[in-house]
Amino acid sequence: MKKPSNWIGAIIGAIVIVIWLVTNYGMIHSEKLSEAVISDKIHNKEGYYIVVEDHKLHVKDPSTWMLLETGEAYEVTYEWYGKIAPYVTNINQPHDEDQVGGEH
Asked: Quick one: which of 52, 50, 47, 58 has its CA closest to 83?
């Protein structure tokens, strides 16, 4: 018969693994940056990206990417989960309620 401490260790290990998997792959993390200045725009075969405060963010819509200007400040909301690269979900000019390219 195995020792009960081995079973307890195995259960604790399984709980830790489940918690790690849920927090890294089951949860979507979101962050909002205010007055964030775009320092670089990158376009390659993987897609369209902007660099904001040392974060390389994927811009899924090429039209939105084309409207953005380096050196300009924006309010940027982005999300990520698991091994998915962070991607922009919303981007506005500072103190503006309309999304870039939206009707004014």
From this structure: 58
